[in-house]
Design goal:
Blueprint lengths: L4 E2 L8 E2 L2 E5 L2 E2 L5 H5 L3 E4 L22 H13 L13 E4 L14 E5 L4 H9 L4 E4 L16 H11 L3 E4 L2 H5 L4 H10 L12 E8 L12 E13 H12 L5 E3 L10 E8 L4 H4 L6 E4 L4 H9 L3 E4 L7 H17 L6 E4 L16
Helix pairs in contact: 3-4, 6-7
Length: 362
């Protein structure tokens, strides 16, 4: 049976109220007048939306990064190139920017606050001291954030800093690997040198334990993680422990030794140093002593059974002194030629979360 298509009755207009009506066609199979009159139509409205006006100024033209922030970032990258960092897991660079809106904001104060860890207390200190840039050795953002709320103290810190227009730059392992970086500073400590030392450092040969796996930027050849100091003459273990404790500001340090009875008399040929949690970096070094921030129980047992003496001072205590002794004067020298009124401050609120408590004093 052939099928014909019925059109809508002629008296029904195909244009109504500016809309175009497209009739729905249906097969003629015993069509009645009533079914034809009840034919349904699909209406397709041609909506004419006005074009959005082209903005007079692009959004990026309404704000800019303060010039002082750029000066600080450039200075950090000059002395601690981000290419030195271990980006397989680390997160370095400008992690929080700030903006300068000419209509509503005054120029940023040329104040930099250095800190080892960026806590809420440090953020409040930065606001109180009118800082516009924080240089935090440890990154305060390690992985992607799916939300930013006040329920998490780290995120609350981020919100507080953003609300007050404070930028955050984090160099971390770029400082560890730099020739003038953290581990060189620790090498100076164990050998008794630098930091206005009144006595000459014990002569030693220094070797990077883990060189960079990729080519270093020009001028930073030989960079890497961990440092082995091999003394030209055996050094007193007790003197090394005293030097470390004095420079990191501790009266008591944690020591694991194959023979605790010989701590005051032993002499050693080589010391491996690595700031923070450094065992994985320096465990392969041929050293009599390992100096680091912290070490797990089982790694300490392994080191002792290998004949090594382990000296730990808490994670951030092995790093914080570098900010005052090296990074602060370095940044001051770099920035003063470009911003005469610059201030580089070291946080007073920053501290290691752990402390040794004498329970008899509680």
């Amino acid at each position: 049976m052939s099928t014909k298509l019925a059109r809508a009755p002629a008296h029904i207009s195909q244009r109504a109220c500016g809309a175009t009506l497209t009739p729905r066609l249906q097969p003629i199979q015993h069509l009645t007048r009533r079914s034809i009159l009840k034919a349904r139509f699909t209406t397709a409205f041609h909506l004419h939306q006005p074009q959005l006006a082209t903005p007079k100024m692009a959004a990026s033209d309404k704000y800019s990064s303060p010039s002082f922030t750029a000066l600080v970032v450039d200075a950090m990258r000059k002395h601690y190139p981000e290419e030195l960092a271990d980006r397989r897991w680390d997160n370095v660079g400008l992690l929080l920017g700030n903006i300068e809106i000419p209509e509503t904001r005054k120029p940023k104060n040329p104040v930099v606050l250095l800190t080892n860890d960026l806590t809420y207390a440090v953020a409040e200190e930065a606001i109180q001291k009118n800082a516009s840039v924080i240089v935090s050795y440890h990154p305060f953002i390690f992985s992607g954030l799916k939300s930013i709320t006040t329920k998490d103290p780290q995120q609350a810190t981020l919100l507080l800093l953003a609300a007050n227009g404070i930028a955050v730059y984090c160099p971390h392992t770029a400082v560890d690997a730099a020739p003038n970086g953290l581990n060189t500073w620790l090498g100076d400590i164990v050998s008794g040198g630098s930091a206005s030392s009144s006595s000459a450092a014990a002569p030693s040969t220094r070797t990077v334990i883990n060189p960079l796996s990729s080519p270093a930027p020009a001028g930073f050849e030989g960079s890497g993680y961990g440092l082995l100091c091999t003394f030209h003459q055996p050094e007193s273990l007790a003197d090394i422990i005293r030097r470390v404790a004095s420079r990191v500001g501790m009266r008591r340090v944690m020591v694991a030794s194959p023979d605790p009875t010989r701590l005051s008399t032993a002499r050693v040929d080589a010391v491996a140093v690595c700031a923070g949690s450094g065992w994985d970096v320096i465990k392969s070094a041929t050293a009599d002593v390992v100096v680091t921030g912290e070490m797990t129980h089982h790694n300490a047992l392994k080191a002792v059974q290998e004949g090594k003496t382990v000296v730990t001072v808490f994670h951030s205590n092995s790093e914080r002194g570098y900010l005052t002794e090296v990074m602060k004067p370095l940044l001051e020298s770099e920035l003063k030629g470009k911003e005469a009124s610059v201030q580089v401050l070291v946080s007073e609120a920053d501290r290691d979360p752990f402390n040794i408590v004498d329970v008899s004093e509680l």
